[in-house]
Amino acid sequence: MNAPVSSPLPRGLYVLCDDTLRPDVPLARKAELLLAGGARVMQLRMKRTPLREALAVAREVVAACRRAGAVCLINDRVDLALLTGAHGVHVGEEDLPPEAARRLLGPQGVVGVTVRDVAGARAARDAGADYVGLGPLFGTTTKQVNAPVLGLEGFAAVVRDSPLPVVGIGGVTLENIARVAAAGAHGGAVASDALLAADVAERVRLLAVAFDRGVQGTSLADGGV
């Protein structure tokens, strides 16, 4: 197994504050609930929010994250990250290239990249990324993904050879997040399992505890089962 690599992200639960889930609840309120549960890393994903409104929302969410001591990343939009003082961005396959995001954000900004395999993780490292989101780990209904499901063993195999910290994405829930952590994940990205819960803050607390328990258990990346 490779030596652990450093990351600007705290290890553990990685929550997504998404405008496609429970659209009746304002994004700022969703962020408030996620932070109340102890979220330390939050990605703000606004696929349906008009740009002018998105700027105002992002300012509010970034400020709330900073007050709570949480890292706030903006999905895709480097311009919003710069205008709001967010910690960085997460970009996907159809978004701004990571090397461009790095140039705009400078050395202090956090850049995350969605990848599908070890080659993608290495390319992300070469482009200046700080971490990768790897998936889909399991099936997910939050976002359409044209890529095969990795499963835990496939995920652990990539984690072993990745030059960057890996956040597991796609279908991560309370029922499986401990196994994601045990597979060597730096983080487990959760959207619907948190935001669709009856008590969002409590669900976040339970997810964070479960991830930490998985870290303390036998790691699949170390050859455990």
TrEMBL record:
Residues 13-192 form the Thiamine phosphate synthase/TenI domain. Its cofactor is Mg(2+). It comes from the Bacteria. GO terms for cellular component: cytoplasm. The keyword Magnesium applies. InterPro entries: Aldolase_TIM (IPR013785), ThiamineP_synth_sf (IPR036206), ThiamineP_synth_TenI (IPR022998), TMP_synthase (IPR034291). Binds 1 Mg(2+) ion per subunit. One of its GO terms (biological process) is thiamine biosynthetic process. The keyword Metal-binding applies. 2-[(2R,5Z)-2-carboxy-4-methylthiazol-5(2H)-ylidene]ethyl phosphate binds at residues 140-142, 171. Pathway: Cofactor biosynthesis; thiamine diphosphate biosynthesis; thiamine phosphate from 4-amino-2-methyl-5-diphosphomethylpyrimidine and 4-methyl-5-(2-phosphoethyl)-thiazole: step 1/1. GO terms for molecular function: magnesium ion binding; thiamine-phosphate diphosphorylase activity. It catalyses: 2-(2-carboxy-4-methylthiazol-5-yl)ethyl phosphate + 4-amino-2-methyl-5-(diphosphooxymethyl)pyrimidine + 2 H(+) = thiamine phosphate + CO2 + diphosphate; 2-[(2R,5Z)-2-carboxy-4-methylthiazol-5(2H)-ylidene]ethyl phosphate + 4-amino-2-methyl-5-(diphosphooxymethyl)pyrimidine + 2 H(+) = thiamine phosphate + CO2 + diphosphate; 4-methyl-5-(2-phosphooxyethyl)-thiazole + 4-amino-2-methyl-5-(diphosphooxymethyl)pyrimidine + H(+) = thiamine phosphate + diphosphate. 4-amino-2-methyl-5-(diphosphooxymethyl)pyrimidine binds at residues 43-47, 75, 114, 143. Mg(2+) binds at residues 76, 95. Keywords: Magnesium, Metal-binding, Thiamine biosynthesis, Transferase. Gene3D superfamilies: Aldolase class I. CDD domains: TMP_TenI. Its EC number is 2.5.1.3. It holds the Pfam family TMP-TENI. It is an enzyme of class 2 (transferase). Belongs to the thiamine-phosphate synthase family. Condenses 4-methyl-5-(beta-hydroxyethyl)thiazole monophosphate (THZ-P) and 2-methyl-4-amino-5-hydroxymethyl pyrimidine pyrophosphate (HMP-PP) to form thiamine monophosphate (TMP). This is Thiamine-phosphate synthase. It comes from Melittangium boletus DSM 14713.
